Known about the structure:
Number of domains: 3
Shape: elongated
Oligomer: single chain
Strand content: 5-15%
Structural class: alpha+beta
Number of helices: 15
Distance between the termini: 24 Å
Helix content: 55-70%
Amino acid sequence: MPRRRGLLLVALTAAMGAYTALHIRVGTDISRFLPTRGSSGLAALSKQLADSPLTRTVVVSIASDESAVAIAAARELALALQGHPEIAWIRSELRESDLEKLHELYFPRRLSFLSSQPERELPERLAEPALRARARELRDSLASPASAFLKVLASADPLGAFARLAEGLRAGQPALRVVDGQLLTPDGRHAILLLRTRGSAFDSQVQARLIADLRAAFAAIATRLGRGLDLELSAVGAFAAEAERSIKADIVVIALCSASGVALLFVLLVASLRGFLVVSVPPLAGILVATTLSLLVFGELDGLTMAFGTSLMGIAIDYSNHLLLHHGLARPAETPQRTAERLRPSLVLAALTTVASFVGLGITPFPAFQQMAFFAITGLL
Length: 381
């Protein structure tokens, strides 16, 4: 019977290890740290912005000392990326429809941007002298060649709030020019492409594949055209993919260093490699069970969950350490089995109180904290 139970345990451990190795995914979605219920309007807005079109927009810059080469490379890259399953659209210049969308977005909200200090500035702007001066400005502008356009805008926005907003947006952005249908920086050395991804910017695996495809396509173009072409890109997805890669690397390094340090210290003090292997079973088993169940429930693990939960599982080695040292150094009269039975009620109580504290963390409206609590509870139990 014990032999059958041991074989069953080994088979179950192997199955969990195989499942974890095949399905492990480390997430970096910052929206997991935003509340999902009972949240304020600001938190709800932050959650929407985390997966908004802005976060899924990628800015690609292709640099060359010759404008013609940069433009040619940008056009070839745009053609190479057309039809990519993860790209919703790719553009090399601003369209008239983009300006219309900008107007539709900001014009109804223009008064919200009228002043950054409304209590101090608005009374002065709405005073009679300021309004008279504004009326004279409108009269002069209506006498200009652009009066046909300004007439409609002046009647809907006599205070000029939208004009001020547009000037502010234009002043805060680097001036780009269009040459042969391609956006260029003022120095003519950088051709700019804009693209938007279909998936979330925080889906790091999808973003990593897209960035790899983008870089591979550019490498082929640079090899063909040459002339010192360089690629730069700015995207939330790129940062998310790099964060996942860095987290995975850090987890491996920290795990190896900590395990090696603990093993060395244990062997030096106890002089028993076998004893270290024995006491390592509880924390490793807890980490494996917690990881497998978390992947089954959540589909992926957040990087902080793995770091936090794995370090927490380290306390499990203390109990087996105490038992081993108690009998390896002190040599008490009772057997190890008897000592374990005597300490079991206290250990169970300690585990339950720890679990109770994580239950409180698990009922919070933050998905990341819920996952941390689930990982810790399943690992401890």
